[in-house]
Amino acid sequence: MSTQQQADEIGPGVLSRFTAAVYRFLVLGVFLAVAGAPTLLLWTLLAPAPGNVVWFVAALLPAAPALSAALYAQRAWANEPDLSPARPLFRGLKLNLRDTLAWWAPVLAVATVLSVNVLFAGQVAGGGMLRPVCIVLLVMLAVWSGHLLVVSSFFSFRFRDVLRVAAAEFFLSWKSSIGLLSLLVVAVAAVIVSSEGLLLVLAWAFAAMLWLVVRPVVADITKRFTADD
């Protein structure tokens, strides 16, 4: 089906396009809510104790594949404006699941170690100096993960090149890095002020803002690290 035919399926009117956009993000919201339900369930069952930090971090395993699918779908919706928004979501999940988990699982393992250091730093000598260092490393790891998410969602690089490109974009696309940090702060604040449920309900809005933040990263990677045939 051509782009023109797909546009005709939606219709040229403002109301029809607005309705299509609402429908897309409604589907996105349901998709992210279902993907995030295991995380929310585990967090609800766990007591908020430092000893459970390993399980709190491990519960985030579905997050990156779901966000990868969300990013993939939002670009597909812009290029193929049809009335089947779920197809790009599941296609993105299928295509990117393995590549995303390849870096996301190690990132969660490192995040677990750093989180344990932050929570239990007071119990060891020199912990007062260790805690702020680990907090900074956690923040940097989270922002780097945002760039890793972009690379694994839209490009087919070797694993070590995925790590290198994401590290380069951490500095080259510094405005997007600040944007990723801002989204992280908003997400953490939403959980602290309200609850994890609010973040899950508004996950579609978070994914939409994430796409706006990382679009320049996609363009920069395309320009710097890919070549036309």
Structure explained in plain terms:
This protein has helices spanning 3-10, 14-45, 53-58, 63-79, 86-120, 127-154, 159-172, 174-193, 196-201, 203-225. It has 229 residues and is an all-alpha fold. Helix 4 runs antiparallel to helix 5 (86-120), helix 4 (63-79) runs parallel beside helix 6 and helix 6 (127-154) packs across helix 10. It is globular and about 65 Å long. The relative contact order is 0.11. The model is unreliable at 1-7 (pLDDT under 50).
How would you concisely characterize the structure shown here?
By secondary structure, the protein is mainly α. The chain has helices at residues 3-10, 14-45, 53-58, 63-79, 86-120, 127-154, 159-172, 174-193, 196-201, 203-225. α6 packs across α8 (174-193) and α8 (174-193) packs antiparallel against α10.
The helical percent reads over 70%
Distance between the termini: 25 Å
Average pLDDT value? 89
Percent of residues in beta strands: under 5%
Order of helices and strands: HHHHHHHHHH
Judged by helices, strands and strand pairing, the structural class is mainly alpha
Number of strands: 0
Envelope shape: globular
Low-confidence blocks of residues: 1-7
Radius of gyration: 19 Å
Helix run count: 10
What's the main sheet like? none
